[in-house]
Design goal:
Blueprint: H1 7-17, E1 20-25, H2 32-40, E2 45-48, H3 54-64, E3 68-74, H4 75-81, H5 86-91, E4 95-100, H6 110-125, E5 129-133, H7 136-153, E6 156-161, H8 163-166
Parallel strand pairs: 1-2, 1-3, 3-4, 4-6, 5-6
Helix pairs in contact: 1-2, 1-7, 4-6
């Protein structure tokens, strides 16, 4: 899906404005541009995780060490994080997540639907404040507000980027 708005560059700008210099991820097609930008930036650190819940430990450790980090993942990985979200929650560590959604608009893959539909209610059930975004022009300002909310309140926050923005894939696409 061609995008007129380079939301990835805008999100990177907002990350840097807030001194978020570490991005933990399980790579996802919808995040590719952002991950490439972070990887190419000398002032940023990209950590590729083995599994999404490892990000909770990295984010917590970075905060305790005086740094800011965040996690970027696909909605299918959110289910892996639910138990681990207790770690930053109990310690009052801000946990900022950027989640690209699956199981929504135009989804071709039936096994993505369950977690895609459950992502927001499950995150909210464990105390994560969710900010869904359906418009590419709203991703950066929503991310900025969510980041400020997370770091000022020391709570867990997720920006949920709609599949309508990312685009639906087919079986022959990466």
């Amino acid at each position: 899906m061609a995008q007129a708005i380079d939301w990835s560059a805008d999100v990177l700008r907002e990350m840097k404005a807030r001194d978020i210099n570490t991005l933990c991820t399980i790579p996802d097609g919808g995040l590719t541009r952002l991950l490439n930008l972070v990887s190419e930036d000398q002032d940023m650190r990209l950590i590729t995780l083995s599994t999404e819940e490892e990000g909770m430990g990295v984010v917590t450790g970075q905060w305790l060490g005086g740094k800011r980090a965040m996690i970027a993942m696909q909605s299918s990985g959110v289910g892996n994080c639910i138990n681990a979200l207790g770690f930053p929650g109990v310690m009052r560590v801000p946990c900022l997540m950027l989640v690209t959604m699956r199981g929504q608009w135009g989804e071709f893959n039936p096994w993505q639907v369950s977690m895609g539909q459950a992502t927001r209610p499950v995150l909210e059930a464990v105390g994560v404040k969710c900010f869904p975004v359906d418009d590419p022009a709203e991703i950066a300002p929503t991310f900025a507000a969510a980041a400020d909310f997370a770091f000022n309140s020391r709570l867990s926050v997720a920006v949920l980027v709609s599949q309508r923005v990312i685009g639906a894939k087919g079986f022959g696409q990466k």
